[in-house]
Amino acid sequence: MARWTVEWLVVTKGSERTIPALAFLQDQPVNVRRQLLAILDAVRSTGPDQWRDTTSHDPMSGICADLHEARDRHDQTLYRLYLKWQRRERRVIVLTGASKPNGTALPDTFYEELARLAATTSTVPPPFATVDDAVRLTLEDRS
C-alpha cells in the first residue's frame, strides 16, 4: 500500500505567508523535531486508522474531533503536532504544533483557532505549501 502524501498548511494574512507547523518545529529542540516527524512518517506508512500506539498518535475530541495529534514528551514538556488526515485523498495535512507543561491543558481558544485552521483545508484551492514555500520562508527567517 502506498504511503500517504504530506501537505503543510499555509496561512496568508495580507501579503504575509506563514507555515504554522514549520514555524513551530523550527522553534523546538532537534530531538523533538526528529521524533514528531518520525511519528508522522510511521503513521503515514500504516495509515491513521491502523495505528495502535495512542501514546504517540491519537485522534482528538470535541471541536477538533476530525484531527489527530502526533505526541512526544521530553522531561516534563509535552509536544504536539496537529494533523488532519484526508482519507479519500490519502494525504495528511500538517496544521500547526504546540508545547505545554505535563499535566496542564492548552486554553480553549487554542483549540478554537486550531479548528478554524483545519476548516481552511477544504477551500478550493486548498492553502498548502510547496517545498519552495518552506525553503523561501526558512531562508527569509535566517537573514
Order of secondary-structure elements: EEEHHEEEEHEH
What is the CATH homologous superfamily assignment?
Answer: RelE-like
Quantity of strands, as a count = 8
Q: Give the overall average pLDDT.
A: 91
Q: How would you classify the helix and strand content by structural class?
A: alpha+beta
Task: Please state the CA-atom Rg, rounded to the nearest Å.
Answer: 15 Å
| Distance, first to last CA | 42 Å
Query: In one word, what is the shape?
Result: globular
Beta percentage is: 25-35%
CATH class: Alpha Beta
Q: Descriptors for this entry?
A:
YaeB-like fold, alpha+beta, 143 residues
Compile the SSE list and pairings.
Layout: E1 5-9, E2 11-13, E3 16-18, H1 20-26, H2 30-46, E4 57-59, E5 68-74, E6 77-86, E7 91-101, H3 108-119, E8 128-129, H4 131-142
Parallel strand pairs: 1-7
Antiparallel strand pairs: 1-8, 2-3, 4-5, 5-6, 6-7
Could you give a quick summary of the protein structure above?
By secondary structure, the chain is an alpha+beta fold. The protein has four helices and eight strands. It has one domain (5-142): 2-Layer Sandwich (YaeB-like fold), CATH 3.30.2310.20.
